[in-house]
Amino acid sequence: MLDATQTQDNLLEVNNIEVIYNHVILVLKGVSLSVPKGRITALLGGNGAGKTTTLKAISNLLASERGEVTKGSILYRGERVADLNPAALVKKGVIQVMEGRHCFEHLTVEENLLTGAYTRSDSAAVKRDLEMVYEYFPRLRERRRSQAGYTSGGEQQMVAMGRALMSRPETILLDEPSMGLAPQLVEQIFEIVKAVNEGEGVTFLLAEQNTNVALRFAHYGYILENGRVVMDGDAAELRENPDVKEFYLGMSDEGRKSFRDVRSYRRRKRWLA
Ligand SMILES: Nc1ncnc2c1ncn2[C@@H]1O[C@H](COP(=O)(O)OP(=O)(O)OP(=O)(O)O)[C@@H](O)[C@H]1O
Ligand SMILES: [Mg+2]
CA quadruple 36, 39, 45, 50: dihedral positive or negative? Predict the structure, then answer.
């Protein structure tokens, strides 16, 4: 059990959720996690582990994919959010940046950013926030008049993140920001996540396959495999954990090793049980 102070610090709590697609395919098998205010929490794991499904369960985007949460609960500031559509969730301060960056290709970079503020009527504040986004993403200022569809993958990732920031969120659910980007750009994107976290106090739940970079920037991490959390801990601890290291090595070799195959983890788990 969490004590009262811990609960208060957690903006988001996912309690033992199960998700089923198409009424039959059980994809999340009891996932629990907590996202403390002002922190960067990483949700790690390989292809198909259930990261995107977890984020979509939180932001209520599963219905369009014939998915549903069949067990457990999701609380934001202690309130159930299961019945809120994504727009209502944005009003509560939670916004998701989808995997694969979705920009409005025919709009300019700046027009894309402004769509993120469509619910807001305070135009002076919107203008200030646009300036704030350009401070974090100088590249977007340079490209402000370019058609978004013609910008690079990295720039589109920045547009997607910048647009999310324009809604002045308290929490950003960020899905796989490193996807398809060169290492140097990945580094740059994560530097910006850190700067936004520190500068604006925005809380992040970050889904990433790139465990290595995510654990350098996140405060805490959860490792998902096959729809279950197999390990969690402070990012610094996870980085030094021999099992996690072995898992990476396995990932870089041909034929990724399953985290469950790492024996000492199982042993440790038995001790803890
Ligand atoms: N709409 C869907 N219908 C049926 N099964 C789905 C659907 N979406 C995802 N799945 C399955 O759910 C599992 C988890 O997928 P999910 O996209 O959540 O994984 P992920 O961790 O985000 O992976 P990746 O790193 O590749 O993005 C996978 O086995 C996937 O095939
Ligand atoms: Mg995914």
Answer: positive
DSSP string, 72-123: EEEEETTEE-TT--HHHHHHHTEEEE-TT----TTSBHHHHHHHTTTT---H
Give the pLDDT score at 134.
98
Q: What pLDDT does 250 receive? A: 45
Residue 189 lies in a domain: yes
Testing ligand 1's pocket by substitution, the residue of 17, 23, 51 carrying the most ligand atoms inside 8 A of its CB is 51
Q: pLDDT averaged over consecutive 10-residue blocks of the chain (273 residues)? A: 56 97 95 98 94 96 92 96 88 91 91 90 92 97 96 94 96 94 93 97 96 95 95 94 71 49 48 43
Q: By residue range, what is the domain housing residue 215?
A: 37-60+169-272
Q: Which residues line ligand 1 (CB under 6 A)?
A: 21-22, 25, 27, 45, 47-53, 65, 67, 99, 176, 209
CATH number of the domain that residue 190 is part of: 3.40.50.300
Total structural domains within the chain: 1
Q: For the purposes of burial, counting CB atoms within 10 Å of the CB of 262, is it exposed (0-12), middle (13-18) or buried (19 or more)?
A: buried
